[in-house]
Amino acid sequence: MDLQVIQNKIYEVRGCRVMLDFHLAELYQVETRALKQAVKRNIGRFPSDFMFVLSKEEANLLLSIGVSQNVIPPDYNFGAALPMAFTEQGVAMLSSVLRSQTAIEVNISIIRAFVLMRQMVAGYEELLKRIEELEASTDAQFNDIYQALTQLLSQSQEQKQRRRIGFVTYDKPETDR
Predict the structure, then answer these.
(1) Torsion (CA) 77, 80, 83, 86 in degrees, nearest 10
(2) Could you give the angle at the alpha carbon of 121 between the alpha carbons of 117 and 124, nearest 5°?
(3) Which of helix, strand or coil describes residue 85?
(4) Whether the model pTM is above 0.70
(5) Is 83 exposed, middle or buried (CB count within 10 Å of its CB: 0-12, 13-18, 19+)?
(6) Most CB atoms within 10 A, among 43, 49, 98, 133?
(7) Interval 19-44: pLDDT, tens
(8) Per-residue pLDDT for 177 more than 70?
């Protein structure tokens, strides 16, 4: 399974990276209704840090950032069918609830996608830290260069305002000889 496809279905909600029930159902090749029923029958396996139900506002916010309108129509009256959001641990737990071979294979790919995203974030944090260190060490050097350039520019402005020196010719009107 293509990890990029999976990564595009991972969202940040309530400070957690999650996948939504309808995306998981699509990947597992089951109906969303069947996935939700399996979770509800085994709700003890899904504490709040594994799975939570989105509020209507959260669902509409996800819609506004690009979740397909075919999946969540705008201002839809969700009623009792609000989307479920599964954290990485919740996705891993789904493999014990959905016992098909497809579910096992998809779960492995999803877990790899979560791990890859975590590694990328760690890499970005390290890169940001190194950039900040570089900026701190070079700020003094760039400040000196900036001051020197500013001084040179101000000198060139003064030179433009000086009266020119050297051989000057004046056009004399022709007079009768």
Answers:
(1) 160
(2) 140
(3) strand
(4) no
(5) buried
(6) 98
(7) 899 899 898 888 989 899 999 999 99
(8) no
Q: Tell me the C-alpha distance between 115 and 167, whole Å.
A: 78
Strand partners of residue 84: 53
The predicted pLDDT at position 86 comes to 92
Place of tokens 């969700």: 78
Give the integer Cα–Cα distance in Å for 167 and 90.
Answer: 88
- 173 backbone dihedrals φ, ψ, rounded to 5°: -65, 145
Instruction: Give the E-state strand segments of the chain in sequence order.
Output: 10-13, 16-20, 51-53, 84-86
At 47 the pLDDT is 92
* Predicted pLDDT at 63: 72
Tens-digit pLDDT profile for residues 52-80: 999 888 888 877 775 554 444 444 445 55
Tokens, residue 138: 């070079």
Retrieve residue 123's tokens: 């890499």
Strand-pairing partners, residue 17, are 12
- Radius of gyration of the CA atoms of the chain, in A: 32
